[in-house]
Amino acid sequence: MALNQRQACGWTRCRRKNRRALCICSLQRRCQLAFDASTTAISRKAAMRRGCAMTASDNSQTGKTMVPGSAEFVRFLVETGQKHVFGLPGSSMVAPLHQLQNTDIRFVPAIHESVAVAAADGYARVAGSATTLLYMLPGLANGLANLYNAWRDETPLTVIASQQASYHRSLGSTIGEGDLVAMTRPFTRLSHEIAPGMSLRFWLEKARSVASGALPGPVFLSIPEDVLEGMVEQTSFRQSAAPSPAIPNVSAVAEALALAQRPLIVVGGQLRRFGGSRAIEDLAAAQGIALAYEPGFADRLGVAPGHPNCFGNILFAPALERTADVVIFLGARFLLEAHPKPSWFPQAQWIAHINADPLKLEETKKADWAAAADPGAFAAALAGAVGANGASAGLVDARRSWLSSLREGMSSAEMPRGQSSYLRAITPLHDALDHGWLVDESVMGIPVVQGVLRATDGHRYMGTTGASLGWGTGAAAGVALASGEPATCVIGDGSLRFGALGLWTLRNENLPVTLIVLDNGGYGSTRYFERQYIQRLGPAAVPQGPGYLGSDFRESGSSVEGIIAGFGIPVAVVEQDDDPRRAIEHAWSQAHAGPNAVVIRMDFGD
Ligand SMILES: Cc1ncc(C[n+]2csc(CCOP(=O)(O)OP(=O)(O)O)c2C)c(N)n1
Ligand SMILES: [Mg+2]
C-alpha cells in the first residue's frame, strides 16, 4: 500500500519490515514519509524530489535505517535548502549526481574545477553557503588556487571531493586517490575524510556549521566511492549554526576615539560580512572620523565608497596615512602584505586591531591594542559607547576641517606610479554598484576602482584578498546566480586569460554578467615589478632593460576579444584614447539577455 503525504506526516515511524522503505523527506514540518515497494511512480518521484532515497532497508534487529550514501548526501542538500550545487563530475562522483536529478536542486557545471570552486565561492558570499563537488585528487588539485582565495576571504563554502574506494586505498598508487585532507587542511576550517562506518550526516552537518560558524571559512570533505555507493545509516542529526557573538569590551577604543585629533578607522571586508558597516558609517559621520580601506585587495568594502568621510584605499590617501593620530583597524588583516612600506602611520600615537580571527592578530606587525572579536558586534558596541561619550563639538569641527583639507589636497599626483592611466578606463564605472554587483579582479586597477565608486551602499562589491588569479569570471557567475541580479566583472586581461574557462559557465547559464576587461597587453603588475627589480639592482643589472618574459601578450596567442567571442559572448572593443562610457552603458542595457563584454585598451606602461 502506498501512503500519501498526509498519511505519512506526524513522526509515526513505520516498521513494516523488509518490503517497506523508510525515508525522511524535507517537508516544512520535517515529517517522515514512508512508502513501500508498490508505491506508484508518481509518489516515488515526489518523494525523490524531496531528496529521498530510492532504496532503503529497515534493519529490524538494530533499528537502523540504511540508505545509499549518495541518497543520504542528497537528502542533506535538500534539507539544508540548497538550490544550486556546483561541480565537475567524474566516475566516483556519479552516484550523488544521479540522485540529484530527483530533486529541485540545479547542478551548475563548470569545465574546470577552478571555476567550480570560484563560482561556488561567489555564490556562498551572497547566499551564505554553497557546495561544490569535485573529482578526486586531480579535480581537487585544479580547484586549490581558488580554495585559497575563499580561505583568505573566509567564505562559508563546502568543497566535497570524491575519493578512491576505501578498499582500493593504497600509499597513493591507485588512480585518483590521494591525501586530500592534507592537501586542503591549510585552506579550510575543517577537513576530513569520511571512512565507511562513520556517520555521513554527522560530518555533513558538522562541516556546514563550521563553514558558517562564529569564524566562517571553507570546509572540505573527502567521500570515498564506497561510502557514496554503499549503504549508510540514515540519521536526522541537525547541528545549529553560528552562535550569537559575545559583547566585546570596547572602552579602550572608545576612549582613544573620543580624544583623537585626527582619528582614522581602516576597515576590511570582515566588517561588511559581520554586519558592522552601517554602525561605523554613522559613527564616522557623527564624530568626524576618517575612513579608508585596508591596503591592497579587499574581499568586500567595509564601508560605502560614497561615504563623505571615505578616502578609498589607504594606499591612495598618503596624506591621511601620514597625519592620522589614532588608527583603528577593524575587520581588516592589517599590514602584512607582500610589499610593506618600511613604516606606516608615522604620527599615530595609538593603533588598535580588531579581527574575528585570533590568528590574523598574530600576523600583525605592530598594534598597541588588539582584540579577537566579532567586528559587527564590536562596531555596534563602539557606536553605543562613543555615542554616549564622544568627542566635544569643538573637536569634531576641527576634525571636519582636517578631512576637508585632506580632500582638497588629494590629487592623482599622489597615486602610485603607473596607476593614473587607469582613471580613464575605470572612472566610467563610478555608478557600477547601482547596476548590480561588482566583481573586481582588475589587479592594478583595484585601488582605482575602490576610489572612483560613488555608491552610498557598498554591499555589492566583491573582490578577493587571495589574489590568486582566475577567480573573477567564475565568482561573477556565482554572484549573479545567487543574487538573481546583474553583475559587472572588471578584470585584467591576464586574469581574464586565467579565468577563460569561466566564460563557458557564464554562457551556459546565460547569466547577466558584463565583463569589463582592462587590456594592457598582459601582466602589467608583473612588468612593473621587473622594472622595480632592475632599479634595485642598479648598474649591476644585466641586461639593463626588462625582458617581460611571459608577461607581454601583445603579440602572443589569441586576443582577449577573440577568447571571449570564442565562448559565444558578444564583445565590444574600446580603443586607446576613446571614452569607454558609451560601450559600458550599452553592455549594461543588454545584460538581461546574457553575458557580454567590453575590452578597453590600456597603456602597456613600459
Ligand atoms: C594563480 C596566479 N598565478 C600567478 C600570479 C602572479 N600574478 C600577479 S599579478 C599577475 C598579472 C595579472 O595580469 P592582469 O590581470 O592583466 O592585471 P595587470 O597586472 O595587468 O593589472 C600575475 C601573473 C597570481 N597572482 N595568481
Ligand atoms: Mg593586464
Describe the model.
Helix content is 36%, strand content 18%. It has 24 helices and 23 strands. The strands form 5 sheets. A 6-stranded parallel β-sheet has the order 6-5-7-8-10-9, sandwiched between helices. Strands 14-13-12-15-16-17 form a 6-stranded parallel β-sheet. Strands 19-18-20-21-23-22 form a 6-stranded parallel β-sheet. α5 runs parallel beside α19 (472-483) and α12 (277-287) packs parallel to α15 (375-388). The longest helix has 17 residues, at 136-152. The protein is globular, with a radius of gyration of 27 Å. It starts with a helix and ends in a 5-residue tail after the last strand. Residues 1-54 have low confidence and may be disordered. The structure holds thiamine diphosphate (TPP) and magnesium ion (MG). Thiamine diphosphate (TPP) binds at residues 145, 443-444, 467-470, 492-495, 520, 523-526.
Q: In one word, what is the shape?
A: globular
Helix/strand-derived class? alpha/beta
**CATH architect. name of the largest domain:** 3-Layer(aba) Sandwich
Low-confidence stretches: 1-54
* First-to-last CA distance: 78 Å
Average pLDDT for all residues: 88
**Biggest sheet layout:** 6 strands, parallel
Q: What's the gyration radius in Å?
A: 27 Å
- Indicate the proportion of strand residues: 15-25%
The amount of helix comes to 25-40%
Labels describing this entry:
single chain; 606 residues; alpha/beta; Rossmann fold; 4 domains; 6-stranded parallel sheet; 24 helices; 23 strands; 18% strand; disordered N terminus; binds thiamine diphosphate; binds magnesium ion
